[in-house]
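Late entry, evening session. Most of the bench is empty. Finally got around to the prediction I had been postponing all week. Sequence below, unchanged from the version circulated by S.P.
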Amino acid sequence: MPDAFPLSQGHARPGGERLPLPPEAAMTPQQRAAAQALIDGPRKGVYGPFLPLLRSPVLLDRVAKMGEYLRFESVLDARIRELATCAVARHTGNQFEWTMHAPLAAKAGVAEAAIEALRVGARPKQLAADEEVALDFARELLQTQGVCDPTYASARAAFGEQGVVELASLIGYFAMVCWLMNVARTPAQASASGPGLDAFPS
């Protein structure tokens, strides 16, 4: 029977990684080409969700392109992108995305105390006004599958219509890759630093 809060996915879960990087000799030409495109692109390697996605090279390519836009080219400020990504990682209990993006959120300017509050399951209080709006939007969307009119109006005022579309898409993108890695039990990177996620308090 599955755990009520299966947050110990990836490296911390018994049973090990289900869909690791295939040996190069076992890869198809399409898989090798997809892996090389990742190495040559802004990610500079094959890791995280792209390990299980190698089983579907066409899907990997399309997911990678969407992620590249949302992560590196979105109209949203890096603080907002990284905070929203951390909110998704916390919600899904995904160790890989948390340990990757919590340091990036801090580097982008999100307060360390706010990141730590989010990590332990508390509502962060040390947030800028636009970060408050983004976090409210992300949490409501993740919990209710939509947002109410006041939340939408606040997000539109803060980020514009394009920003709202990209924020919702960013949340959906990271939920998708977190779920995929939870299924695959993809571990955090060996070089990850800082604390990972614990189960929510009961």
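Two things to note before I forget:
The mean pLDDT is 91.
The two ends are 19 Å apart (CA to CA).
Will write this up properly tomorrow.
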